């Protein structure tokens, strides 16, 4: 049976059937939006105008003209079920349109020329957590904060005036959280009615957040690559830099032996020597950080270290910043790495200074003992015990509550470009936690910030530090000293002679090997640098040991990755001496190695000696 559509059915098909097709296209665009933003925005513009503009205009324009040609085009063979469905829904076009709009996976709305909402779909209702009757008739000024509403109203007025299509990602605050919507707005003009504004918006919050997270991860990767580059650079220059430090340290120590005890000159030389030790530790610290290896710790009094930091930072602060210190340790010691602890205090003091550099203020440092137990220890994030509390406070601008939980995150900084890397507090927390301590912060915007560091007190006594004028072990044996730097050869030979030894120096490894081969028993011990041209130190000593297996040997290294204690021990090397050399370490290592000759101990371990602090 041939079924012919009536006039009303033709109108219904002409106005309503495009909607499901548009829905399919819209959903496909939504599905692949992440792959192509241009497709997304273009589709949103076109489909928004077609869906909302077409539907409303057709529904409100009255009956259409039914021509013969149009009737012929609409006539078709339809199953009886479809014909019955069309007949029963002829008068329900508005309901069908509402069903479509309320299932649309996007926000859809219509406003009048005054910015008042005339229509919203279910997605708008769910986002605003309001019923339609609470929104219809109200404007953005009634729904959004003033700054957001002002921008929206200005954009809407411009769109209606220019009758243009507008597409952009707009940030809005919903329930105290910022959301991002891909919004497309367009004018709706009808000669018989005032102009309207239609819009459709997709919630892109998750996508924007994912992009921000990706950007953050990318920045962290860049910073990580920078740190890796620093480690590589440090490893490359460590040898040369330590040679410079070795020359400075060695000749300063020799000058101190010549200076009258207690004289002003000796005191000044001691300060130079301290600076070389600090420079040496900085190289070690960079390498340790990049390789994530441990550092030596010793029992120390934190009071002199804090005093030293404050002296250093005082020279960099403007006169508008006052430093106050209250240092009470009662002789308590910390089991800590001095350089790392120095870095923690310096980072915290530097941050405090930056917070007050414009308006000035007070930088206060307190050092005191704390006995923590029970709940108090738990709240501080440490176990029960005795702790040294280092408190550093300022009267600067403070930290916003919304940022407080992020200040210890790596690469997070609120400072201007070039002012900070975002690593200072992250490194400080890592160091404190690695020492079994805790760090927390209290801050109030406009009043200042207080950092509190808790470090466990050591039960051991203090470790001797500083430059000490004590008799050094001496000897009369014959020593061969090998280094590719002539200045270090001269310095090493002079040190050995000051200690009573008969010393011969060589600045070429092959020359030293030839000299040894001529008379293998001429020397009682050989000292060699590791990194040298033509022949490395470990290879040189291995060839000498092949000629004379009982030869005591000492290998000097500037933190070489290629030469580890395990490799040195396997090669038969007696001791590993870390550069730059101090005369005290050299004297003790020489004496211990020489005195160990002839002592056959199957589990004798290689000694690794770091420069004396």
Structure in a nutshell:
The chain has 613 residues and is α/β, with parallel strands linked by helices.
N-to-C span: 106 Å
> Which regions contain 5 or more consecutive residues with pLDDT less than 50?
1-17, 56-78, 463-468, 600-605
- Determine the strand fraction and express it as a percent band: 15-25%
Major sheet summary line = 7 strands, mixed
CATH level-two architecture of the largest domain: 2-Layer Sandwich
**Shape estimate:** elongated
Mean pLDDT: 77
Spell out the CATH superfamily of the largest domain.
PAS domain
Secondary structure elements and pairings:
Layout lengths: L6 H10 L1 H14 L5 H24 L7 H7 L5 H9 L4 H10 L4 E5 L5 E4 L1 H7 L3 H4 L4 H4 L2 H17 L3 E9 L2 E14 L2 E11 L1 H54 L5 H28 L6 E3 L1 H13 L6 E7 L5 E4 L1 H19 L4 E12 L1 H7 L4 E10 L6 H4 L19 H11 L3 E7 L3 E11 L19 E5 L3 H13 L3 E5 L2 H10 L6 E5 L7 H11 L5 E5 L7 H6 L4 E4 L4 H13 L11 E3 L4
Helix pairs in contact: 2-3, 11-12, 11-18, 13-14, 14-17, 19-20
Structure, described:
The protein has 613 residues and is an alpha/beta fold. The chain folds into three domains: 7-210, 2-Layer Sandwich (Beta-Lactamase); 302-461, Histidine kinase-like ATPase, C-terminal domain (Heat Shock Protein 90, 2-Layer Sandwich); 478-609, Response regulator (Rossmann fold, 3-Layer(aba) Sandwich), CATH 3.40.50. Helix content is 48%, strand content 20%. The protein has 22 helices and 18 strands. The chain has helices at 7-16, 18-31, 37-60, 68-74, 80-88, 93-102, 122-128, 132-135, 140-143, 146-162, 205-258, 264-291, 302-314, 338-356, 374-380, 401-404, 424-434, 486-498, 509-518, 537-547, 565-570, 583-595, and strands at 107-111, 117-120, 166-174, 177-190, 193-203, 298-300, 321-327, 333-336, 361-372, 385-394, 438-444, 448-458, 478-482, 502-506, 525-529, 553-557, 575-578, 607-609. The strands form three sheets. Strands 6, 7, 8, 9, 10, 11 and 12 form a seven-stranded mixed beta sheet that branches. A six-stranded parallel beta sheet has the order 14-13-15-16-17-18, sandwiched between helices. A five-stranded antiparallel beta sheet has the order 2-1-5-4-3. Helix 2 (18-31) runs antiparallel to helix 3 (37-60), helix 11 (205-258) runs antiparallel to helix 12 and helix 11 (205-258) packs across helix 18.
């Amino acid at each position: 049976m041939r079924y012919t559509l009536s006039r009303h059915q033709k109108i219904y098909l002409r106005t309503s059937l495009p909607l499901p097709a548009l829905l399919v296209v819209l959903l496909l665009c939504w599905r692949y939006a992440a792959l192509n933003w241009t497709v997304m925005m273009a589709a949103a513009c076109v489909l928004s105008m077609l869906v909302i503009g077409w539907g409303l205009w057709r529904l409100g324009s009255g009956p259409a003209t039914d021509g013969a040609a149009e009737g012929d085009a609409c006539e078709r063979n339809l199953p009886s079920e479809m014909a019955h469905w069309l007949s029963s829904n002829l008068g329900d076009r508005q309901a069908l349109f509402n069903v479509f709009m309320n299932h649309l996976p996007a926000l859809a709305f219509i406003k009048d020329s005054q910015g008042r909402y005339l229509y919203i779909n279910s997605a708008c209702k769910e986002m605003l957590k309001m019923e339609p009757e609470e929104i219809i008739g109200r404007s953005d000024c009634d729904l959004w904060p003033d700054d957001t509403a002002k921008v929206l109203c200005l954009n809407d007025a411009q769109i209606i005036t220019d009758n243009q299509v507008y597409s952009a990602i707009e940030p809005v605050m919903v329930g105290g959280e910022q959301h991002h919507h891909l919004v497309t707005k367009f004018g709706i003009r009808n000669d018989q009615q005032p102009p309207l504004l239609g819009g459709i918006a997709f919630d892109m919050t998750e996508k924007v957040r994912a992009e921000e997270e990706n950007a953050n991860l990318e920045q962290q990767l860049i910073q990580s690559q920078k740190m890796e580059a620093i480690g590589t650079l440090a490893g490359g220059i460590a040898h040369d830099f330590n040679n410079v430090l070795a020359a400075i340290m060695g000749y300063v120590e020799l000058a101190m032996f010549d200076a009258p005890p207690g004289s002003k000159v000796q005191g000044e030389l001691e300060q130079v020597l301290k600076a070389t030790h600090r420079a040496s530790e900085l190289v070690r610290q960079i390498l340790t950080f990049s390789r994530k290896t441990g550092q030596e710790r010793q029992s120390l009094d934190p009071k002199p270290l804090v005093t030293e930091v404050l002296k250093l930072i005082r020279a960099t602060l403007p006169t508008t910043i006052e430093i106050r210190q209250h240092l009470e340790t009662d002789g308590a010691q910390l089991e800590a790495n001095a350089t790392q602890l120095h870095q923690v205090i310096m980072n915290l003091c530097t941050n405090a200074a930056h917070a007050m550099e414009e308006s000035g203020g007070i930088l206060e440092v307190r050092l005191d003992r704390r006995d923590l137990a029970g709940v108090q220890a738990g709240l501080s994030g440490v176990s029960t015990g005795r702790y040294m509390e280092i408190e550093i406070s300022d009267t600067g601008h403070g930290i916003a509550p919304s940022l407080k939980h992020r200040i210890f995150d790596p690469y997070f900084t609120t400072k201007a470009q070039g002012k900070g890397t975002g690593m200072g507090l992250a490194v400080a927390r890592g160091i404190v936690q690695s020492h079994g301590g805790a760090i927390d912060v209290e801050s109030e915007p406009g009043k200042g910030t207080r950092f509190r560091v808790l470090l466990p007190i050591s039960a051991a006594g203090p470790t001797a530090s500083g430059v000490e004028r004590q008799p050094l072990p001496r000897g009369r044996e014959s020593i061969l000293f090998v280094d590719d730097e002539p200045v270090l050869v001269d310095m090493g030979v002079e040190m050995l002679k000051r200690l009573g030894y008969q010393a011969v120096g060589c600045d070429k490894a092959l020359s030293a090997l030839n000299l040894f081969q001529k008379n293998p028993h001429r020397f009682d011990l050989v000292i060699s640098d590791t990194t040298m041209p033509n022949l490395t130190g470990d290879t040189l000593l291995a060839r000498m040991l092949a000629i004379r297996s009982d030869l005591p040997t000492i290998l000097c290294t500037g933190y070489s990755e290629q030469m580890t204690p395990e490799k040195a021990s396997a090669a038969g090397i007696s001791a590993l001496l870390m550069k730059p050399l101090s005369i005290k370490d050299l004297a003790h290592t020489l004496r211990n190695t020489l005195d160990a000759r002839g002592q056959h101990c199957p589990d004798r371990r290689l000694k690794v000696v770091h420069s004396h602090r």
